[in-house]
Design brief:
This protein is mainly alpha-helical. The chain has eight helices and no strands. The chain starts with a helix and ends with a helix. Belongs to the sigma-70 factor family. ECF subfamily.
């Protein structure tokens, strides 16, 4: 596929792909992101794609990108909808270890596992990715989100000590 054919496919199919994704997600911003990702993936492989097969390639790529997005969202904690008061502790503990374990138990399983592997067992990001069958980037994201939750839950260390 040439650059001209790629641009023509963008003009021809972008609206159709957007409507297809939007119908499934019902979120305009996520739908736009998926369409963008789809065309990015097609551009990366544009030399290997036949111009006669571009429509089916675009829709199958959009479908797989949509499924990946839905799966990612399923495991993402919805912090915007969370009750902030539920994640802060006002009790005074002298045992920080107990507070930390309570906070760890509140994490989603994937975040808890990667934090335990990283901070307790000392594994590298690559080793954690191999163990959990996640990408290295996803491991880093889960560790970051888990640590953010722990930081918000525990609050200031001076309050606990």
């Amino acid at each position: 596929m040439t650059v001209k054919e790629y641009n023509q496919s963008v003009e021809e199919y972008s609206d159709n792909i957007y409507r297809f994704v939007l119908k499934n997600l019902k979120d305009t911003e996520k739908a736009k992101d998926i369409v963008q990702d789809t065309f990015e993936k097609v551009w990366k492989n544009h030399k290997d794609i036949s111009p006669t097969k571009v429509k089916s390639y675009l829709f199958s790529t959009a479908y797989h990108t949509l499924i990946d997005s839905i799966r990612r969202e399923k495991y993402k904690a919805e912090w915007d909808k969370a009750d902030d008061n539920k994640y802060f502790t006002t009790q005074s503990y002298s045992d920080l270890n107990e507070v930390l374990h309570q906070a760890l138990d509140m994490l989603p399983p994937d975040q808890k596992n990667v934090i335990l592997l990283r901070d307790y067992e000392g594994y590298s990001y690559k080793e954690i990715a191999d163990i959990t069958q996640l990408s290295e980037a996803q491991v880093k994201v889960y560790i970051y989100r888990g640590r953010q939750f722990l930081k918000n839950y525990i609050g200031k260390i001076e309050v606990l000590v």
